[in-house]
């Protein structure tokens, strides 16, 4: 049995499975409703049921009282539809709609994916979740007030684990830890989500998404989100790296390209190793974008990478006709990671 849930005043509707709460069903459909604890205690997810009926599996949750329930209020992280619903709730559309939180997390696993890149997967405590938009980042909080920022490489619908791509920076306080001592089970604290680098869903222009090195991480999150919600706009993904081993998840964009006619993938190497026997594009990644798209006036461009790449690309892309307000970027210092 499934139920239709419609958000009043919008064209957005989604299906909830029997026994599935409203927040989980909305997230599965690629819609973001406000939430925080997902355990019925904080009240962030409170909204109204305009039509239809809901049930709570374990009685009224702590963050709502009987009077509020009588007025039609509901906690959507706990409420299960038992009929089709029309609800009133403020959708999260922009990064500014989400309050950053400070949260603990446990390292679930660390995967080697290149000699100097590891993927770190973090798990939040059982009663905590962090709403975020694909492409945003978190700050790992370190001793002495230090912070290290990492883009979220997973999409919001896939938030069981938070995925970070960490490049080894010799001497870097956090990256040395990741590459030497970090074990599954280690505890961290972080603040997030941060930043406003995220997919603009209100556009129908084709997209160019360019990542440099581990700047591929937020591009991965954005593309996975876009594919999940059925965005059919063309997406041309460029990934710039030094040599082939630095394309540490190369099979993933190749897989998207094979599966989705709207996706193209062009890896660009600046210093291919002889053993790479590289036949593909070479040079600076933004120059390859400009060679392929000399007129960018009809595009949205998303890019993420180190400042020299971002600065050079920004100048070149605007000169190629890209309106400045259609250029979205996340520039990170190597020290940030
Ligand atoms: Fe906290 Fe629902 S009560 S998210």
Describe the protein in words.
With 337 residues, the chain is of the alpha/beta class. It has three domains: 2-94, Beta-grasp domain (Ubiquitin-like (UB roll), Roll), CATH 3.10.20.30; 101-194, Translation factors (Elongation Factor Tu (Ef-tu), domain 3); 207-331, 3-Layer(aba) Sandwich (Rossmann fold), CATH 3.40.50. It is built from seven helices and 19 strands. The chain has a six-stranded antiparallel sheet with strand order 11-10-13-8-9-12, with helices on one face. The chain is globular, with a radius of gyration of 21 Å. Bound molecules: FE2/S2 (inorganic) cluster. FE2/S2 (inorganic) cluster binds next to loops.
Question: Can you give me a brief rundown of this structure?
Answer:
This protein is an alpha/beta fold and 337 residues long.
State the major sheet: 6 strands, antiparallel
CATH topology of the largest domain: Rossmann fold
| Beta-strand content | 25-35%
CATH homology group of the largest domain: Nucleotide-binding domain of ferredoxin-NADP reductase (FNR) module
Span between N and C termini?
46 Å
Helix fraction bin: 10-25%
Average of pLDDT? 92
Structural class: alpha/beta
Total E-strand runs: 19
Order of helices and strands: EEHEEHEEEEEEEEHEEHEHEEHEHE
Sum up the structure in keywords.
single chain, 337 residues, alpha/beta, Ubiquitin-like (UB roll), Elongation Factor Tu (Ef-tu), domain 3, Rossmann fold, 3 domains, 6-stranded antiparallel beta sheet, 6-stranded parallel beta sheet, 7 helices, 19 strands, 19% helix, 31% strand, globular, binds FE2/S2 (inorganic) cluster
């Amino acid at each position: 049995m499934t139920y239709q849930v419609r958000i009043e005043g919008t064209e957005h509707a989604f299906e909830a499975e029997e026994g599935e709460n409203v927040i989980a069903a909305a997230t599965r459909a690629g819609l973001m409703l406000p939430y925080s604890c997902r355990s019925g205690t904080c009240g962030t997810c409170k909204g109204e049921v305009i039509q239809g009926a809901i049930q709570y599996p374990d009685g009224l949750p702590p963050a709502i009282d009987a009077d509020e329930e009588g007025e039609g209020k509901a906690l959507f992280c706990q409420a299960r539809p038992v009929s089709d619903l029309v609800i009133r709730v403020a959708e999260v559309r922009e990064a500014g709609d989400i309050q950053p939180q400070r949260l603990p997390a446990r390292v679930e696993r660390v995967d080697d994916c290149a000699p100097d890149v590891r993927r770190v997967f973090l798990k939040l405590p059982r009663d905590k979740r962090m709403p975020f938009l694909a492409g945003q980042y978190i700050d790992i909080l370190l001793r002495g007030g230090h912070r290290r920022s990492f883009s979220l490489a997973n999409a919001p619908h896939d938030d069981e684990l938070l995925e970070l791509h960490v490049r080894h920076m010799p001497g870097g306080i956090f990256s040395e830890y990741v590459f030497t001592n970090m074990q599954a089970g280690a505890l961290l604290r972080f603040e997030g989500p941060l930043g406003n680098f995220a997919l603009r869903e209100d556009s129908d222009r084709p997209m160019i998404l360019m990542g440099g090195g581990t700047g591929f991480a937020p591009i991965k999150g954005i593309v996975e989100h876009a594919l999940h919600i059925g965005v059919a706009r063309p997406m041309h993904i460029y990934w710039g790296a030094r040599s082939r081993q630095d394309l540490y998840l190369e099979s993933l964009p190749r897989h998207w390209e094979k599966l989705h006619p709207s996706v193209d993938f062009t890896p660009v190497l600046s210093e291919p190793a002889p053993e790479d026997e590289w036949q593909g594009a070479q040079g600076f990644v933004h120059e390859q974008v400009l060679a392929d798209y000399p007129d960018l006036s009809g595009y949205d461009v998303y890019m993420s990478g180190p400042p020299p790449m971002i600065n050079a690309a920004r100048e070149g892309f605007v000169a190629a006709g890209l309106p400045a307000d259609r250029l979205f970027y996340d520039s990170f210092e190597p020290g940030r990671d």
